[in-house]
Amino acid sequence: QIELALAEANVKYKAHQVDLFNKPTWFAAKVNPIGKVPAITYGGPDVDPTEPSSLSFKLAESNVILQFVAELYPESGLLPKDPVERAKVLFFMDTVDRHFDKPGNEWMYGRTESYEGYLKGVEMIQGLLSESGEFAVGDRYTIADACIAPLLSRLKISYETDIGAFPVGQGTKLGEELKAPKYAKFMKYAQAMLERPSLRDTNDEVRLCIEHLAQLLSRNITRHTWQTPGRH
Questions:
Q1: Is residue 122 packed enough to be buried (19+ CB in 10 Å), middle (13-18) or exposed (0-12)?
Q2: How far apart are CA 186 and CA 127, in angstroms?
Q3: What pLDDT sits at residue 178?
Q4: In angstroms, rounded to a whole number, what is the distance separating the alpha carbons of residues 3 and 6?
Q5: Is the pLDDT reported for residue 8 higher than 60?
Q6: If residue 212 lies in a helix (H) or strand (E), which one and from where to where?
Q7: Residues 155/177, Cβ–Cβ less than 8 Å
């Protein structure tokens, strides 16, 4: 999400991938005491990401960072100046968190046997999309799009590979349901986001499949059958 916003704003930055299951000691000590990812440092001297300066500003929580980036680079248009459009962006992001990401995790990690909550989230997101359906809000890319785009990639992986802690075959079934005309606007929007250069350049579906599997296994979740992930 953060890399997407930075790419869309055409900002140069240093990135460092943190192993979610074996975080280095310096991360909690010098970046985020509670150890949450993602996190950023801003300002201070130009240093190696593994040696963050005490003079730099540290920030965590995806949506907070997204808004921070948009505020830092207002010329990017990532956050509208108009108060109404701005509120629509922030409301969209909150809806994604509460009604799309959360039920999606519940289903993918086997905490519920039905994807109905996830599907309702799809309907809610579709209802909030701009009239053209090209962007989440208005007629240009905003942090609302950056917020949901990686989650759309995860959704695609789930229904194309059937990878998850849900009952075998449910991922495929969800994919079939999403082909219905009632979800056409959402799917058109999702495809547009998946084809956007900023996502293609920062998103590796094979890596995401592996990370998804690792997260499932770390929770001691088992299934009857695993299918081999592939690039689509």
A1: buried
A2: 9
A3: 97
A4: 5
A5: yes
A6: helix 205-218
A7: no
Q: What is the pLDDT of residue 148?
A: 97
The helices-and-strands tally (H runs, E runs) of the chain is: 11, 2
pLDDT at 35 over 70: yes
Mean pLDDT of the residues in the chain: 87
Distance between CA atoms of 32 and 35, rounded to whole angstroms?
Answer: 5
Q: Are 160 and 169 in contact (CB under 8 A)?
A: no
